[in-house]
Amino acid sequence: MGEDISTFDFSSYLIKHRKSVEAALDASLGPERPEQLREAMRYSLLAGGKRLRPILCLAACEFAGGDSVLALPTAVALEMIHTMSLIHDDLPAMDNDDLRRGRPTNHKVYGDAVAILAGDALLTRSFEMVALRSPGVPVERLLKVVGELSLLAGAPGLVGGQVVDLECEGKAVDLETLEFIHLHKTGALLKACVVSGALIAGASADLLDALCIYAKGIGLAFQIIDDVLDVTASSDVLGKTAGKDLVADKTTYPKLLGLDESRKRANDLVIEAKAALKPWNKNSAPLLALADYITNRDR
Ligand code: GRG
User: Fold this and answer.
1) Which parts of the chain have pLDDT scores under 70?
2) What is the reported pTM?
């Protein structure tokens, strides 16, 4: 059913979808053995977080005319990939962080080896969710989703972006390289969310093209705001260590452009992202509101 953006109740929408995502995440982890692995997987996956990625997936499915219930296993898979990337990102060999989602990082509690393996288990479980635990979705669509997730999580996406990010620490980085890092390390997964939700609904090529433009805009905007919040917000509010980028000598948007210009850049990107959906008025209210949420958020 189409929703008018002026009457759309975004906060109820978030509450409703967060609730179904939380329940599906909880149900997605069975009686894993050994117990320590199960605990480590649950510790990070069920630690809260905004759940932006699964909600984007559900909203894109609805936008493309699908039933978001059918996209729920894929939405869970996306949150699993996101969570595993956070666990690995926090390891001493990468960002070496102690705090995530308001609690000690996975490796601080379970040790590096189990943290790595919990991440591996979440990543592999994510593909299981799509391929084996998505009843009611035609297999050709699921195959496309598996392909999309493999590409956007792997070397052409998150992994590639993370490697360039690590290579650039302590070096002078230009805006083009920074944009590459942001679009890959962060934007790729947001794109995977939007594209996979639409694929499950059987979206047309035109609609997928528009969603890719939308996803690129919100993906870059999301990481620019993440850079801004690292400077302006507290660790308490963020649930992760604030001010890390400066300490790690990372190039960020605020470092290159200043805070005001960075915020403006993010706002402009969100405006462009929303414009890409204009020809498809129907069911666009949640995706438009999610785009605004990316720049308005405080954590
Ligand atoms: C995916 C195979 C595979 C490997 C992972 C470690 C790594 C490779 C990539 C790092 C990716 C990374 C951590 C990017 C940062 C993205 C980001 C801004 C995360 C914070 O997201 P929020 O604010 O967090 O949505 P919550 O906790 O709310 O979910």
Assistant:
1) 1-4
2) 0.97
